[in-house]
Amino acid sequence: MAKPSILIGIPVFQGRDLVGEALESVRAQQYSNFRVLMSIDGDDVASSDVCERFTTDPRFQLVQHHRIGRVANLNFLLSQVREDFYVYLQQDDRLHPRFLAVLAEQAQAHPAASSIYADCEWFGLRSGRIENPPLTGSPLERVLEQIERPRIAPIRGLIRRQALERAGPINANAYDSVRQDKIWLAKLAREGDFVRVPETLYFKRRHEGATGLSWKSWPADRRRGAWLEAALGAIEAALPLVPASDHTRILTFVADRFVIPRPGRDLYFNALAAGEQEATRFVHDLLSEAWIRFGTLPFPNLLGASRPVDALASGQAACEEEPAVRLMIQGVLDHLEYWLSALAGETAPNRGRPETGVLAV
User: Which domains does the chain have, with CATH numbers?
Assistant: First the structure.
């Protein structure tokens, strides 16, 4: 059987001090059927000089852009995949010499998988391991599981080109696309299982100035906007898998996931900590924007219902054919009564941005 071809995409931004280590780890791979595309964002002569040294190997190619931004650079690389698989390597990380060989072998053994990934180990200012469990089940089960318990290691594995193309680009927004990598993985999960190789083959560096930490210092309204975009991305990932009659359960599942703190749950916008009114406002904004973007009528079966929770409960009965999915949203009814009461007297917002997202409760 022919060895699968692999594109390794490395987005580079002010990476002169570290990108050389990443590229050395690629050059040391025991697997040889790969191409490397180094994509430099901005007129960064120092980083370009480091990358240029590797182009004596014809498998290493360099492209330089005027400043396009982090997400545009990531999406540029996604658009360049012609090989069987894609690997995203950050400029400050490293690969084990066996990374490609082991994952390529497993990819051939799991032809329906969308991502085949290994365990990751932190180095630098952080220690520990990232051991994300595999993701299996029906497409809807996989998507909702990724939303509820997001994996991140699969984005650093071998991603099958056909699945990548169907997932589309990473969402770009005004909030630097924070958390959109996990949302993109939810879209990838529609296309196949995530297969874990329980061996440490990817090494992730934590250092001062890591871009993934900058959002923590943002003002509250900007963090809120990023959470709202993440929740909308989750809705977008799941909606294609259900008929219009089941949109309600997707909306309520996502509202619960991004607002309600639960044991073992992290990465959520805890609107409840700011009071019931803020929780209601956040969910109203979420449902209104979902209508604007996706045409999802928030809770259509509430109109004329004598008791909103009863209407939602009857809608939930349609989930019985997928017990795993039904179990995941079972707890929604315990928490949404005040949201639904507020929404019961509302008609669907106009198909344009509402004047205000605040509801009195």
Answer: 6-213 (3.90.550.10), 218-344 (no CATH)
